[in-house]
Amino acid sequence: MAEAVVSPAVSSPVIPTPAALPVRAVLPWAVFVGLLAVVALYFVGAEQGAISVFAGSDVHEWVHDGRHLLGFPCH
Predict the structure, then answer these.
(1) What is the pTM of this model?
(2) Which residues contact 74 (CB under 8 A, 6 or more apart)?
(3) What does DSSP assign to residue 4?
(4) Whether 22 contacts 31, CB under 8 Å
(5) Half-sphere exposure of residue 32, counting CA atoms within 13 Å on the CB side?
(6) Exposure string over 36-60, b if 16+ CB within 10 A, otherwise e
(7) Tell me: the pLDDT tens digits for 11-50?
């Protein structure tokens, strides 16, 4: 004689929707990341060029490989 096995009903997991972030919470971080990107791009792309801020070649040597990686000529 066979017995029937009944498995409990499996419900699909409820995926919560992400909460909306207010612009006032995100804006300072977006400005900070934007300024950080501009400073990094300056040091990689323009420092030790025509508008050099620091004398010598120390900054150039620190960002030398980054210049080549991003396609900036430096030689």
Answers:
(1) 0.54
(2) 48, 60, 64, 67, 68
(3) -
(4) no
(5) 5
(6) eeeeeeebbbebbeeeeeeeeeebb
(7) 777 888 888 888 899 999 999 999 999 988 877 777 666 6
Q: Name the residue ranges covered by the structural domains of the chain.
A: 36-75
Cβ neighbours for 64, distance < 8 A, ≥ 6 positions apart: 74
Which of the 8 DSSP states describes residue 7? P
**Torsions phi, psi of 62, nearest 5?**
-70, -35
SS3 letters across 8-74: CCCCCCCCCCCCCCCHHHHHHHHHHHHHHHHHHHHHHHCCCCCCCCCCCCHHHHHCHHHHHHHCCCC
Task: Find tokens 């991003």 and name the residue.
Answer: 70
